[in-house]
Amino acid sequence: MKAHVGASARKTEDGGRSTSDVPTNRIASCFTRLRAARKKAFIAYICAGDPTLDATVELVVEMAKAGVDIIELGIPYSDPMADGPANQAACERALAAGATVRGVLDAVRRIRARSDVPLLFFTYINPVLAYGLERFAADAAAAGVDGILPLDLPPEEGREFLRVMRAAGIANVCLSAPTTPLARKRMLARESRGFLYYVCRLGVTGERAELPSDLGAQVRALKAVATAPVCIGFGISTPEQAALAAGFGEGVIVGSHLVRLIEREGRDPRLAHIVAERAGELAAAVHAVKG
Amino acid sequence: MGVARSSQLPDAAGRFGRYGGRYVPETLIPALDEITAAYAKARTDRAFQTRFTTILKDFVGRPTPLTFAANLSKRYGRRIYLKREDLCHTGAHKINNAIGQGLLALRLKKKRIIAETGAGQHGVATATACALLGLKCHVYMGTEDMRRQQPNVFRMRLLGAEVIGVDSGTRTLKDAVNEALRDWVTNVETTHYILGSALGPHPYPMMVRDFQSVIGREARKQILAAEGRLPDLLLACVGGGSNSIGLFHPFIRDTTVRMVGAEAGGTGSELGQHAARFDGGSYGIFQGMASYVLQNSDGQVVGTHSVSAGLDYASIGPEHAWLRDERRADYVRCSDDQALAGLHLLAETEGIIPALESAHAIGVLPEVVKRVRKGAIIVVNVSGRGDKDVAEVARKEGVEL
């Protein structure tokens, strides 16, 4: 197969950022809307099915109402090697509660009946493969999924995956890391759709006290080669950190912090409101930063 | 593709047919590129190879003997030889790879080493290589495996290594690999990961195979000296698959030599009761590679069971998956009970107590001999010695020590 399937999404003539493969994609229109308002995106991650898929539906709907721009839904997996203890425990809770890929897709359909918030799957590749790549792409698109971020699938291993996702109108988000050399940054930027995820530190997902000191320089270097918006994640947990990161990138992702809150408050009937309130504070901090 | 090209595998992308590859988080890609480049140089560098060979000779005690098993041969009517990796320093073949990768770490200027271990043999080997080469060593081990292999945990600590218990998931080898990968993602700039088997992301399956191929190269020379011809059949246990690929690889192009791997059959054929990837597993992507994986219909990797911690793993090295699809090698199951019987058999007939892992190869010997004619030559890899398993075997058999 040719190396750059669908590589048409380069800079458009106005120099703006395009996801022209997937013109009606909610992620793309979200960034267009935010850019017009000179705002940055706040992206929240939760693990689907933790504590239950019903709860996931409520959590997403409430977080969207509270001002979260994009929501990443983790597909629970038995061996999440890029995740820290918080997200691993969430996967274990979700699997123990019976979450399956089919169940997660069903939850997306129920969310779509109530909300237009852009949705992105954060997943390891094996559950997708087991479901069947083509069938997964078709079912995810039909359910209303806008994007997918495969943690353990570098683009050179994912040619077929990229082709199938793009054909289904699902934006594949690539990740770039602090260790990524320039030539590879360029390749990742070329392959990424929706946005480009900057993993801002070495290590797994999880809360950290400090942001890395070279964050600004790293993000500038990435933005210099990126066509899609650059969003920053891994280890961001407080509104202060989120605001700081928003000063550098076009969006900020918070995951483990919300996952821990779900772990702590999972049995509270007001779970969705509690989590949405915290997510709303993070969103407000990010939205206060002018682009 | 055919076995004729086998010596050129994997390809540049680390592929053995549709198996292998590199399925890892983006952060690790530059480190894998760095290792691939350094290893490509080391592979043809005379100074590196000389140092490696010298340590294997003077420190590990290579070449290990190829012992004619006179009593077993008599019993089964075949000429049975044992490749004695149990006589390696530290008690198993794992040291070959640990030394090779330790030397590579010096070239990479990485002073901190991490490793995963199941039975503890790779952990002990890595701790040993690190002590020898002046490297700092951290070993991840599932807490269930720590319980089963207490002597090895203490040996690693005596050798100056830090042993880190892993309490997540099934608390066995796959969880130790996950934790080692997490450590590596975090400390990749200062740390080399000495993966212990011929699996994981490229270039590990190739590199570990190459370091372990000393087993097969020696065996080939030794059997030619002893019998004047190649063997008819090779037999080895297969967990991740490093001792078996080490024995098999130098014979792959000798198509008259049959190759049989013994997988852990555990206590039954239900998912979760065994670690027989070729008999219950299916194509999947797990811990950095594409191979056969024991998984449920939703792509979740399931727990495995084996009496031997070193074979208790949900996937298998990609070259074995390829050899199996090409029908170049054949894989059979050996149950826990058969393996225990194999341990007793070798101990009582030949005076060698094998590791429980290696006992899986002996355990299937009575049926595997039927695949070749009377008088045929069989080489069995005794990948490790059984000292570490004595307490666990006694416990299994209700004996109080």
In terms of topology, how is this protein built?
The complex is a heterodimer of chains A (291) and B (401).
Chain A: H1 26-36, E1 41-47, H2 53-65, E2 70-74, H3 85-96, H4 101-112, E3 119-123, H5 125-131, H6 133-143, E4 147-150, H7 159-167, E5 171-172, E6 174-176, H8 182-191, E7 196-199, H9 215-225, E8 230-233, H10 239-246, E9 251-254, H11 256-265, H12 271-287
Parallel strand pairs in A: 1-2, 1-9, 2-3, 3-4, 4-5, 6-7, 7-8, 8-9
Helix pairs in contact in A: 2-4, 2-12, 4-6, 10-12, 11-12
Chain B: E1 15-16, E2 19-23, H1 29-44, H2 46-60, E3 66-68, H3 70-76, E4 79-84, H4 94-108, E5 112-117, H5 121-133, E6 136-142, H6 143-148, H7 150-158, E7 162-166, H8 173-187, E8 191-193, H9 204-212, H10 214-227, E9 233-237, H11 242-248, E10 258-266, E11 282-286, E12 288-293, H12 318-325, E13 329-335, H13 336-350, H14 356-368, E14 377-382, H15 390-396
Parallel strand pairs in B: 4-14, 5-6, 5-8, 6-7, 9-10, 9-14, 10-13
Antiparallel strand pairs in B: 1-2, 2-12, 3-4, 11-12
Strand tally of chain A is 9
Estimate nothing, just give the exact number of structural domains of chain A.
Answer: 1
The second-level CATH architecture of the largest domain in chain B is 3-Layer(aba) Sandwich
Query: Hey, roughly how much beta strand do the residues of chain A contain?
Result: 5-15%
Number of strands of chain B: 14
Distance between the termini of chain A: 39 Å
Spans of chain A of 5+ residues with little confidence (pLDDT < 50)?
Answer: 1-23
- Kindly provide the name of the CATH class of the largest domain in chain B: Alpha Beta
Low-confidence parts of chain B: none
Question: What composes the largest sheet of chain A?
Answer: 9 strands, parallel
